[in-house]
Amino acid sequence: MLKLKKIDHITVTFPKGKDDDAYYFYKNILGLEEIPNLVANAFWFKMGDIDIHVYREDLTSPLSSRHSAFEVDDLNNTKAFLENCGIDIQYSSKIEGRERLFFRDPFGNRFELIEYI
């Protein structure tokens, strides 16, 4: 069984060409605090102790990059558990200070698991 510590962040998406609209909405309408962004094609904001990552993507793809991210204590053991359950593990770009992996539930929902190092 997985042991999820807490929600780390939520990623929402917006279509290409709508960067200004996305930034304006999350910064000015929702009033979220902008924080340093560590990946391309995104804006990062803080809401309490949870990050909101607003990511540009091609919304014509059947599988979205939208996801919830959860912190775990031991990513290697978690990965082994998921693989033993027949779950396909995926990776993305490296982010300094954390190890991470992605997987999808049987319905295509994407999840990220993070261990801070």
Explain what this protein looks like in three dimensions.
The protein is of the alpha/beta class and 117 residues long. The chain has a single domain, classed as 2,3-Dihydroxybiphenyl 1,2-Dioxygenase, domain 1 (Roll). 18% of the residues lie in helices and 39% in strands. It is built from two helices and seven strands; from the N terminus they run βαββββαββ. It has helices at 19-29, 75-84; strands at residues 6-15, 33-35, 42-47, 50-57, 67-71, 98-104, 110-116. The chain has a seven-stranded mixed sheet, with helices on one face. Strand 6 and strand 7 (110-116) form a beta hairpin. The longest helix has 11 residues, at 19-29. The two termini are 22 Å apart. The model has no long low-confidence stretch (mean pLDDT 92).
Spell out the CATH superfamily: 2,3-Dihydroxybiphenyl 1,2-Dioxygenase, domain 1
Distance between the termini: 22 Å
Q: What fold name stands as the CATH topology?
A: 2,3-Dihydroxybiphenyl 1,2-Dioxygenase, domain 1
Shape designation = globular
**Which CATH top level class fits?**
Alpha Beta
Pfam family, one: Glyoxalase
Protein name: VOC family protein
Descriptive keywords:
2,3-Dihydroxybiphenyl 1,2-Dioxygenase, domain 1; 117 residues; alpha/beta; globular
Question: Can you describe this structure in just a few lines?
Answer:
This protein has one domain (6-116): 2,3-Dihydroxybiphenyl 1,2-Dioxygenase, domain 1 (Roll), CATH 3.10.180. It contains 2 helices and 7 strands, in the order E-H-E-E-E-E-H-E-E. The protein has helices at 19-29, 75-84; strands spanning 6-15, 33-35, 42-47, 50-57, 67-71, 98-104, 110-116.
